[in-house]
Amino acid sequence: MADRDHDKKPVRLEAQPQRASRLRVDRSYPGRISGISLITTGPAEGHGFEVDARTVDQVTEHAEGLRGRWTHGDLSSDGLGRHLGRWENVRPEPFWLCRACGVEAEGAVCRACHQPVSTEWRAVGDFAFDRSAYKIRPDGLDVPAPVYLMDRAEEDPRSLGISVVARFDFEEEPAFEGDEPARLARIAARGDLLRGDWVADPAANPVGLHAGTHTPSELTEGAVDALDRIVARVGKEQAKTRALAFLARYFGDSFGEEVPAEAAEHGSPKSASGALRARVDALEEELRDLRLRQRVEHGGQGQRGDARVDVYLRNLQARATALNAPIPAADLAKVRRLLEEGDLDAAKTVAAAFLDRSRAARQSPFLRGGVFSLDQQRDPAHAKESVAAQRRMLRKRGWKVEVSPDGTAIQDAAPRRGGDA
Predict the structure, then answer these.
(1) What are phi and psi of 92, to 5 degrees?
(2) Which of 116, 136, 357, 407 is a good FRET partner for 368, with 20 to 30 A between their CA atoms?
(3) Distance separating alpha carbons of residues 165 and 194, to the nearest angstrom
C-alpha cells in the first residue's frame, strides 16, 4: 500500500553510467545522443528503496519531453538552471546484469565469474539538445556543453551518467514471514518526474553529487522550483532583477554592506531594471568609442596589413603547390576574408584544413613520357579519407562541418560562435 505520510521531497537517483555499444551521436545541429540509460531496476543506493520494472515503466510513461540539465549542482555550482534539452523516444528495455560483478552481461552466464545473471529492466531514451544550450560553457570548458557531452559520449561514455530527479511515492512488496519487505519507488503523476540530468564521472559520485546528505539537494530543488515559478509569472529579466535585489538587501541587512541604489527600493523591479539598463547602455557607448578610436589609430596601417595578408596567402599557396595540390582561389578567398576581419585563429584553422586536404590529395610530379588517362577520376575512397581527416581536425577545434552525402567533399565549414553551432 502506498505511503500517505511522506512529504515527497525531490530525490536524486544514482547516476547511470553509459555503454559505448549502445550510444549513438548525431552531430547535426543542435545535436542528439541516442540510446542513453536513464534508470535501471535494483537498489537505489543511499536512499533506502528499490526500483523495479513498474518504476521503469512509469519513468518511460512520463519521460517524453522531460528536461535535462548540466549536472546536479548545489547552490554555488554550475548545475543550477543550466538547461540543456529534452528527452525523447523513451522506452523500456531488458538486459542481463551480473549482481556479483556489478556489470552488464552478454549472456545468461557471466563471463567473468561464471555465475548466473539476472534479467533487469532499464528506461532508454534519446536526448535532444536545445539551441540555447550552446551558450553554456561551465567549468571553464572551451567548447559549448553539448559539444563536450557528444565528444565524451563518443570517446569515454562511462565517464558520463544520467541521474533521474523525482518525487517518489512508495509501496511495500509482500514478503515472507521474517523477511524485511522491499520498499518500491512509484511515480504517481507526470509532474512528480522532474528531470533527467547529466552527471560527469558517475563512478566517482555513486549517488549523484550529494553523497551522504539530502539537505543540499532539497535546498537546490526548492530554489530552482521557486525561480521557475517567478520566471513563468513575470519573465526572465524581471525575475533576474528581483533575485539580485533580494541578494543585495540580504547582504546589506545581515552583514552591513552598502545596498546598491538600484536594489534599495523593495518591490520596485522597474527602478532596478532601469538603473541596470542605464549602466549597460553606458558600457555599450564606451565600447563603441573604443572601437572608433581603434579604427582611427590603425587607419594608417591598412596598407601594411594588406601586405601581410598577401604574404601569408602566398606562403600558404606555395606550401600547397609544393605538394602538387594547390589550394583553389575560392578557398584562398575564405582565408583572406577571415584575416581581413581580424579573426586570426579562424583563418589559421581554415588554412590548416586546406593544407591537410592538399597533403591527402598530393600527386606525384609529372613525368615526361608518362601515359595518363584524360578522363581519369579521383579515387572516391581516397577522397572520403581526405574529407574525413579534414572533418576530424575541424571538429576538434570546435567547428561545425557539413559533408556531402557521399562523404567526398566538405560542403560547409564555419566556427561556432556564441550560441551558434
Answers:
(1) -80, 150
(2) 357
(3) 5
As a dihedral over the C-alpha atoms of residue 337, residue 339, residue 340, residue 341, rounded to 10 degrees, the angle is: 90
- Beta-carbon contacts of 94 under 8 Å, excluding residues fewer than 6 positions away, are 119, 120, 121
For 69-104, b where at least 16 C-beta lie within 10 A, e where not — what string?
bbbbbbeebbbbebebbbbeebeebebbbbeeeebb
Per DSSP, what are the bridge partners of residue 32? 26, 128
> What do you get for the CA distance between the two ends of the chain, in Å?
50
Residues 74-101 have pLDDT tens digits of: 444 444 457 899 999 999 988 888 877 7
- Reported as a single tens digit per residue, the pLDDT across 107-133 is 788 888 888 888 888 899 999 999 988
Cα 77 from Cα 94, distance rounded (Å) = 36
Q: Which residue has the cell 523495479?
A: 52
What value does the mean pLDDT of the chain take?
72
For 284-299, what is each residue's pLDDT tens digit?
A: 656 655 655 555 455 4
pLDDT in tens, 131-189: 988 888 766 677 888 998 898 888 888 777 888 888 888 888 776 666 777 888 899 88
The pTM assigned to this predicted structure is 0.49
Residues 6 or more apart whose CB falls under 8 angstroms from that of 213 comprise: none
CA 208 from centroid of its chain's CA atoms: 18
SS (H, E, C) the chain: CCCCCCCCCCEECCCEECCCCCCEEECCCCCEEEEEEEEECEEECCCCEEECHHHHHHHHHHCCCCEEEECCCCCCCCCCCCEEEEEEEEEEEEEEEECCCCEEECCCECCCCCCECEEEEEEEEEEEECHHHHHCCHHHCCCCHHHHHHHHHHHCHHHEEEEEEECCEEEECCCCCCCCCCEEEECCCHHHEEEEEEEECHHHCEEEECCCCCHHHHHHHHHHHHHHHHHHHHCHHHHHHHHHHHHHHHHHHHHCCCCCHHHHCCCCHHHHHHHHHHHHHHHHHHHHHHHHHHHHHHHHHHHHHHHHHHHHHHHHHHHHHHCCCCCCHHHHHHHHHHHHCCCHHHHHHHHHHHHHHHHHCCCCCCCCCCCCCCCCCCCHHHHHHHHHHHHHHHHHCCEEEEECCCCCCEEEEEECCCCCC
Here the cell at position 342 is 581580424
Phi, psi of 191 (to 5 degrees): -70, -15
